[in-house]
Amino acid sequence: LTFFLFYTYKLYIFSRILTSTTSAVRKLSKLDRSIELAIQKYGGKYLARGGKFSILEGKHSYERNVVVEFDSVEKAQECYNSKEYQKAKSHRDGKADFNAIVIKGY
Questions:
Q1: pTM for this one?
Q2: According to the model, what pLDDT value does residue 23 have?
């Protein structure tokens, strides 16, 4: 009798966004739908998107925080590198300070 153990894990992308002007905020909010469609296409699921937050420790100058869950590193990279995401991202470039990291979960 042979047992195979397959460990599956989730992958999380944490993004932080700081916009420079109110008009930039309005423009970026219009892009949310384009980015959402790309994330859904590659199996991503929003766990947190915007919303009120509290700082527990340190400094956090970002206005908006987003957490997206993917099933694998490959899916997250496919999404980020996709035509859909890159097109939406191009509208953000130069209008917001954007920081994103990928973290492997359990």
A1: 0.78
A2: 61
